[in-house]
Protein 1
Amino acid sequence: MKKMLIAMALLVNVYSAMAQDVAIIPQPNALKQTRQSFALSASTPIQLADENFKGAAVFLNGYLQNYYGFSLPVQNAASNKQSIVFSVQKSLSAGAYELTVANKAIEIKASDAEGARNAVATLLQLLPVAKQQPLTIAGVQVEDAPRFAYRGMHLDVSRHFYSVAQVKKYIDYLAYHKMNYFHWHLTDDQGWRIEIKKYPLLTQIGSKREGTIIGRYPGTGFDNKPYEGFYTQEQIKEVVAYATERSITVLPEIEMPGHSMAVLASYPQLSTTPNIAKKVSTTWGVFDKDNNVLNPSEETFTFLENVLLEVMELFPAKYIHIGGDECSKIWWEQSEFCKNLMKGKNIADAHALQSYFIQRMEKFVNSKGKQIIGWDEILEGGLAPNATVMSWRGVKGGIEAAKQKHDVIMTPGSHCYFDHKQIKNEDSVTIGGYTTTEKVYSFEPVPTELSADEAKYVLGAQGNVWTEYMNNFSKVEYMIFPRMSALSEVLWTQKKQKDYTNFKTRLAVQKQRYQLWGANYFKGNLETEK
Ligand code: ACM
């Protein structure tokens, strides 16, 4: 009797340990727990039926190696061992998957590489956080598919620079959350971060600044510490290959016509004021007092086309982000060249001149078979015919673009800016704003102003990480976790299944995973304080 009681107690323990571990973020569409379980060890083979799923196997093995210290053999042939079996199921939609964990096998079905990757992202969350051998995985049947096609995170590497290893880690974080777009903000006033072979000064001069202000803008002083960094084209290729293997599309952003001080420090002839000395910015903000705007001259267009030719070679994505935000118009309004250009081309004002600028660049990008994305300022003065709009100044730019039948990605400052503080009394320096995890979770990317037909233009949403006040990668982690976990559920989970209280229960387990990854994260109050 005593033995039986002990055995029963053990069973209950095992079962409750398993039950506690089934905490998946983002919440799947359908998840049924069974009483089966799978014992994963270093000898468990991965069986791939399709070359297309190789990346998902690499993703799984990378995770096991990084956090549990072993990886699994990959084979094509069937095995009579307990295996992880990937197979193709054509009827599943893009990114969708089915996952069954049973005593004898783990079965993963998907119609595309991203679906298999998403299945692995769920499987990783079924692994016990403790590094036991074998790893006991709770029995489940999962049927799952994304709500939105674009599920993104942005990272500004201009204000502060992160190593290739850190960028790869960031990409892993996206993949763990079933996200599929990495928006890489590669250029800005404070540093140009991508090697362009035709214009070596962009990195020789444009990737370096003399120092940085101390503290929050306007700063309490200047640190006088030279700051620099850029990615070689080989490194860019390495990151893109790493992301592609994990079903993440890398969206490069090359800012124009504003936010171009690093370009103008390198090639001052592209400015409307070429005789005024320029240097890579050492402070933050939007400039009216310094001219950081490209001149809409033929020389500038040739320069930008040559830059984009190299960029398009490096990034297989169908989109190129060309910025378009916060371009001060005073420099064009004061320029004789611009006044003559506007007169000659019948361009009404400086907003229309920006539209002319963006439309020219769009034509070039389209001629190479790619499409542009721009911040919502590209609506001003008339939207370029095929442009996708990233709505950041609230959702109204997104609404306007969708009504004009343009694709939209929502990134409103109110819910998607992870540079904002996340607790009222934040100790570390941030740009300001106040966006709690609860607020991120409450975000609905499809505004009620849109009809069902217009809503189809909302491709998804993205979290933005501007890094003025993130001078190390640990701070980036602190700012994204757990807000990015909340956003992943906004983007993936069906609206009717979202439940903040339930999310918080799962987040308790997710926090153990942040620790397993060695990631920093915000540990304070997740809700808005009055
Ligand atoms: C932006 O935050 N300037 C897009």
Note: Residues 8-20 have pLDDT under 50 and may be disordered.
Protein 2
Amino acid sequence: MRTQRVNVGKGYDVKIGKGLLTQCGGEVAGVLGPCSIAVVTDANVGGLYLERCLTSFEEAGIRATAFTFPAGEGAKTLSTLSDILEALASSGLTRADGVVALGGGVTGDMAGFAAGCYMRGVRFVQLPTTLLAAVDSSVGGKTAVDLRAGKNLAGLFHQPSLVLCDTDCLNTLPEAEYQCGLAEALKTGVLSGEGLFRLFEEGTARQYTEEIIAHCVEYKAGVVERDEKERGERKLLNLGHTVGHAIELCSGYTILHGLAVAAGLAVIARASARLGWSAPATALRIEGALKKSSLPITTNYSPSELSKAALSDKKREMNNITLAIPCEIGACALRTVGVGELEGIIAAGLPPLEGAR
Ligand code: NAD
Ligand code: GLY
């Protein structure tokens, strides 16, 4: 088992390894002390892992209740949040108790939001079951639901007290969901440098899942420790997400988050190269690594559709939007552009590069 400390607020451990779910009761009791727990999960994950999780709490002498919602991004709404909050209240959860998010990023974002606002904030624990949640969303304390106007438009920062990533859970992950996690990890490779990125370029990433999770968590922990509330450096973690979120919104959330981010990453890499903000070789390498990982490198939505959708993005401030730009592998920068420029930037980034493998 590997442990990464995240020194934000009171600080918390991210534990990564096999079989952690069967030990979650003892692990949670060790951090939260005597308390009751409300487990929040979606229908798919609940069917696979809820019983194992509840058994572990029972064995640790912790009273645990459960709330299950329909799986998928379509359920990441104020309405589901309201149902979760009502369930917490009905279960008699007090300020001394805790919420456990058992699932992927949708579950983690919503359960974390509920924990952050229930009784003005109760503690919560993340049990990520997707690769995407393991490498990214379970760490750092961003929580949210989607609004009709766009992704994650209502939310708050609320750090977990513990993250337990049981890598055995990834064995049941559908292939497309595994790909989504690879896309967010590849994004971290572009940010963090050659070591991780080369695994994608060489097509060997799948052989190193646990190492990749540990690397991504270590990198993200550093960024979040320096800039918890996304005043500056943390905006780099949004690499590929401005166009990625726009693709998701345009598709009515039928295109999965990670796959949209992969295409968004390729678009911004090519746009940066064509607009002279980065060396063309960087875009070529990113496009090549995405292709090698069987990830999408473009989208059929038009620059006009995408820029309109992107204008509802949280990264917009007044008439500007800040984009994360991949200058080199391991060297990304923030660039603030006018919202009127966005359509042209996206247009520059849409056509794939000639010669990409
Ligand atoms: P998800 O939570 O919807 O999970 C994807 C699908 O996999 C669901 O159908 C789920 O039921 C199923 N699933 C989960 N674990 C499984 C398992 N072990 N076996 C079988 N099926 C399983 O989606 P996701 O890709 O994990 O997360 C995407 C969400 O995360 C988006 O809403 C995105 O905005 C958010 N996100 C948040 C952050 C953050 O920092 N908070 C970062 C990145 C993404
Ligand atoms: N996933 C981006 C962030 O946590 O900041």
Note: The radius of gyration is 20 Å.
Protein 3
Amino acid sequence: MAQRIPVVAGNWKMNFDHLEATYFIQKLAWLLRDAHFDFKGTEIVIMPSFTSIRSVQVLIEAEKMRIGVGAQTVSETSDGAFTGDISAQMLARLGCKYVIIGHSERRKYHPEDDANIVDKVRAVLAADMNPILCVGESFEERKQGIELEYAVNQVHDVMRDLSDKEAQRMLIAYEPIWAVGTGMVATPQSAQDAANAIRDYFKKTYGTDVSEKVRILYGGSVNASNAQALMEGPDVDGFLVGGAALDAEEFSRIARLTSRSARRRLAHR
Ligand code: 13P
């Protein structure tokens, strides 16, 4: 079985200007170092606003911090007359490793839909970064009991034309919409069930080799009180954290709990 390095990614959404962002990163790096954090065993990623990425990148490089940087969305086109858009190439040049695609807030407030999500995924892969594709049901689908099918179909809609090589570079974030920013978290069992259904989709479509490599995160009201229980599901490979990623101490606690769970997982293999 492949060993998957868990990811704890902080999606800052539209919070923090570049000064607040660099202050936060310094504090986070200090907290993690002080706790002798195992940076090799768990990846830490911060996704700031576009305006802060450069400042964060310069700081991380100068101080040799082992914190990754990502973006919250991207244009599906490479360049040209697209006022206000940011291309994958621009993000890659800034050292971004990950880009969130299809977040429920972007599906709701911006025209990020299944058609352009596919193109965004391709743009990110072509620029040598890793997409974090967000999927997950609303209350409606959950009430009907079709949440697993719904999430898997969302994955399938995007993945259907991707090769094995591209597929294994994907990260999937299962983020049930009703859990995002509400304080209502999925139970560890339902996070595991969704992660397992998504992994099973990868296994059937691309085979065990790919499915064992793909990292599947949970997102939606994650905090330091629920992270450890959520990590008990063997298919949950870390988190996409929103609100709790705006507090350096809380975020570092989530990172440490994830790292501890990952070590325990390794010991039981
Ligand atoms: P919250 O952690 O605030 O619920 O947000 C989750 C999220 O949307 C991460 O992308």
Note: The mean pLDDT is 96.
